[in-house]
Design brief:
CATH class: Alpha Beta
Helix content: 40-55%
Strand order of the largest sheet: 1-2-3-4
Structural class: alpha+beta
Shape: globular
Number of strands: 7
Order of helices and strands: EHHHEEHHEHEHEE
CATH architecture: 3-Layer(aba) Sandwich
Distance between the termini: 22 Å
Radius of gyration: 16 Å
Number of helices: 7
CATH topology: Aminopeptidase
Length: about 190
């Protein structure tokens, strides 16, 4: 497992873009970037945004084969700065678009209602390149990250829309604490610790 630095931004963005490019079902990524023209460009902007937020308020882990990554944030460390405002504005105008802002804000409200107020760790996004999906990259990365946080006492809370990811998280000890369906697709909230 490799802990990312700013020099890994291009790699992480490429991994995440590849991981979600063929995903056309109801999911948070598709809720944000939508479909149609320039979808790939909007997705690239979203993944760069998530990279920057994780670097500011969390950590990024890359699989040893450089084909998978996991972005984590520590919500209790987040704060509003000029940089975060700029990142949010760029995401809104260059990726989300005016027509999707309401849906994204609704998703954020639902997430806020289901995440604890206590300090916790929140995996933001997890993906593996399309050419290794179904292999061992995702499982190995999850195992390495779980071992990295072995002594952790904070709860780990994650939301996921893809059944495959939910099943993977459950194999590593996460349990479903709530399923929210008001976005038109199931949004699972899972907890570890």
């Amino acid at each position: 497992m490799i802990q990312a630095t700013h020099k890994d931004k291009k790699l992480v963005v490429a991994i995440l873009t590849s991981a979600f490019a063929s995903n056309t079902d109801g999911s948070t990524v598709n809720l944000i970037v939508g479909y149609g023209e320039n979808r790939s460009k909007r997705m690239h902007i979203l993944m760069a945004y998530l990279f920057e937020r994780a670097m500011l308020f969390g950590e990024i882990f890359i699989a040893d084969n450089k084909k998978g990554c996991l972005l984590i944030k520590y919500p209790h460390q987040e704060k509003i700065t000029l940089k975060t405002i700029k990142l949010d504005m760029q995401l809104a105008f260059k990726s989300i678009g005016i027509t999707n802002v309401y849906k994204v804000l609704k998703r954020q409200r639902i997430a806020a209602q289901n995440y604890p107020k206590e300090n916790h760790i929140r995996p933001m996004i997890f993906g593996v390149k399309e050419d290794v999906k179904g292999g061992v990259t995702a499982a190995r990365l999850m195992l390495h990250v779980k071992n990295h946080f072995k002594g952790n006492t904070l709860p780990v809370i994650i939301d996921a829309a893809a059944e495959y990811n939910v099943n993977l998280y459950q194999k590593f000890g996460f349990r479903i604490i709530k399923i929210e369906e008001s976005l038109g697709f199931p949004m699972y909230f899972l907890r570890l610790n």
